[in-house]
């Protein structure tokens, strides 16, 4: 799933390629992608793009007609830029193409989604706060006013493990499964540690890991073409998705805990005092 750094890079890429251009066609291929119907998605046609914004993991394309084209790529979605779109309208079928946006200069982008879950979402709204997922977002962790005190206040009442708290978009916007693993590894904290139990020193460590991990990931992604962002994300991850590989910090083997629809990776030596975490599906969690 694209997370804050990749969506931030996509925002920058689209700002460079969309602003000042007119959207001439919005062509939905999979009806499931459309989450709003008034105004209809075709109402965005004729809009000249004035800005591109990011809200957590949401991309928000602003037009001069007062409408916004907002999309969330979900777990298996992606944006593919094309300097020249194929001639003719796309054909509905069994492929991954969900929606196409065409500009007046012949360029544009496709939104695609692999798999069968179909969670890719597109909204055409007058205000991004009309999108339920945007309206419920917590603060952006890279915002200037997001400091140690803000993080401590957010976690103080959380009777959940840190892993779940970091992934909760209504608590902190933009962090998902991959970067929560990376942040906790950098902070040397167990993913199952209770969020409300952090000491001031632990909160400082977590804050620094959060800001540094995301800032460095954004820096690696910035300036890359949209098609290269997935590979850049994978290459920059130290523990997530690297089960069985050596930890780049201590050399211990990276371990995994599986859930019904996801998994987490961690280093026992760096994060849990050398103790392997129990599988959540089989026994109680370690703190």
Write the layout of secondary structure elements.
Blueprint lengths: L3 H15 L4 E6 L20 E7 L2 E6 L4 E5 L4 E6 L14 E7 L4 E6 L7 E5 L6 H4 L12 H9 L5 H6 L9 H11 L12 H22 L7 H8 L18 E4 L4 E4 L1 H4 L16
Helix pairs in contact: 1-6, 5-6
**How are helices and strands ordered from N to C?**
HEEEEEEEEHHHHHHEEH
Shape: elongated
Q: Largest sheet at a glance?
A: 4 strands, antiparallel
Radius of gyration: 20 Å
List keywords for this structure.
alpha+beta; 4-stranded antiparallel sheet; 10 strands
Describe the structure.
The chain has helices at 4-18, 132-135, 148-156, 162-167, 177-187, 200-221, 229-236, 268-271; strands at 23-28, 49-55, 58-63, 68-72, 77-82, 97-103, 108-113, 121-125, 255-258, 263-266. By secondary structure, the protein is of the alpha+beta class. The strands form 3 sheets. It has a 4-stranded antiparallel beta sheet with strand order 1-6-7-5, with no helix packed on it. A hairpin with a 2-residue loop joins strand 2 and strand 3. The protein starts with a helix and ends in a 16-residue tail after the last helix. Residues 282-287 have low confidence and may be disordered.
């Amino acid at each position: 799933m694209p997370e804050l750094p990749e969506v931030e890079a996509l925002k920058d890429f689209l700002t460079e390629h969309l602003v000042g251009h007119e959207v001439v066609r919005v062509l939905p291929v999979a009806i499931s992608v459309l989450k709003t119907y008034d105004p209809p998605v075709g109402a965005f046609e004729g809009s000249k793009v004035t800005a591109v914004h990011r809200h957590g993991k949401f991309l928000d394309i602003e037009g001069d007609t007062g409408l916004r084209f907002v999309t969330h790529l979900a777990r298996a979605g992606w944006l593919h830029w094309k300097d020249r779109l194929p001639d003719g309208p796309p054909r509905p079928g069994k492929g991954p193409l969900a929606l196409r946006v065409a500009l007046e200069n012949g360029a544009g982008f496709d939104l695609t989604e692999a798999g069968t879950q179909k969670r890719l979402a597109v909204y055409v709204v007058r205000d991004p706060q009309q999108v339920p997922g945007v309206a419920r977002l917590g603060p952006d962790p890279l915002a200037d006013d997001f400091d140690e005190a803000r993080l401590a206040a957010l976690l103080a009442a959380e009777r959940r493990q840190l892993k779940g708290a970091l992934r909760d978009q209504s608590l902190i916007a933009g962090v998902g499964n991959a970067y929560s693993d990376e942040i906790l590894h950098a902070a040397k904290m167990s993913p199952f540690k209770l969020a409300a139990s952090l000491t001031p020193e632990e909160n400082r460590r977590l804050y620094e890991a959060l800001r540094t991990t995301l800032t460095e990931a954004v820096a690696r992604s910035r300036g890359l073409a949209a098609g290269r962002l997935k590979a850049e994300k994978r290459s920059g991850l130290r523990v997530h998705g690297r089960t069985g590989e050596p930890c780049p910090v201590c050399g211990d083997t990276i371990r995994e805990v599986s859930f019904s629809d996801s998994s987490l990776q961690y280093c026992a030596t760096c994060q849990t005092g050398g103790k392997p975490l129990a599988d959540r599906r089989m026994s109680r969690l370690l703190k």
